[in-house]
Amino acid sequence: MDKVVLVDESGKDRLNSDGSLKTLDKLEAHRRGILHRAVSVFIFNSRGQLLLQKRAAGKYHSSELWTNTCCTHPRTGEKPSETACRRLREEMGLESKLKEIFSFLYQADVGNGLIEYEFDHVFTGISDRSPAPDPAEASDWKWISLEDLEAALAKHPEEFTPWLPRCFPEVKRYRG
């Protein structure tokens, strides 16, 4: 079963008494709403459009909602930058030079009795390639202007994952 790395509110790893990283089963962390490390990736094309994915129907939470290009949790001992590159390849079939632009803390009820409580590292990159998404991860994708995404988030927030509107203003400022 997948594990998540537990952190404090400043993003510092939590440690066991023996000095090893404190981890928890991913589903258990979401059931209990325990703070853990996450990664979100935003890929833009040369026209400034953002690549969104629609989460696959089989995802354990937030299925069939639109979200950023990809997101995940680092493996034990994996740097967030390594995680971002790995998951961009695995989820969307893309490679890009990525840059961490900020991190943020958020907590959200994501349905099915699950709570996301994450210290999220946000990365951006550029690609003009069409993605080749893993169907177990994403059921659809689209390029969208930041203005159109901002309008859609305001008009139909229920169509998006809860973390996207929370970090979008900062992503938009970075791209602005």
Description:
This protein is α+β, with helices and mostly antiparallel strands and 176 residues long. The protein has a single domain (3-175), classed as Nucleoside Triphosphate Pyrophosphohydrolase, CATH 3.90.79. It has helices at 26-32, 80-92, 146-155, 163-175, and strands spanning 3-5, 23-25, 36-44, 50-55, 66-67, 70-72, 99-111, 114-126, 138-144. The strands form 3 sheets. The protein has a 4-stranded mixed β-sheet, with helices on both faces. A 3-stranded antiparallel β-sheet has the order 5-4-9. A two-stranded antiparallel ribbon has the order 1-2. A hairpin with a 2-residue loop joins strand 7 (99-111) and strand 8. The chain is globular. The model has no long low-confidence stretch (mean pLDDT 95).
Number of helices: 4
Main beta-sheet strand count, sense and barrel state: 4 strands, mixed
Structural class based on helices, strands and sheet pairing: alpha+beta
- The CATH topology: Nucleoside Triphosphate Pyrophosphohydrolase
- Listing every helix as H and every strand as E from the N terminus to the C terminus, the arrangement reads EEHEEEEHEEEHH
The radius of gyration over CA amounts to 16 Å
Q: Number of DSSP strands?
A: 9
The span between the termini is 40 Å
Helix content: 10-25%
What's the number of domains?
A: 1
**Which superfamily, in CATH terms, is the homologous superfamily?**
Nucleoside Triphosphate Pyrophosphohydrolase
Strand content: 25-35%
Strand order of the largest sheet: 6-3-8-7
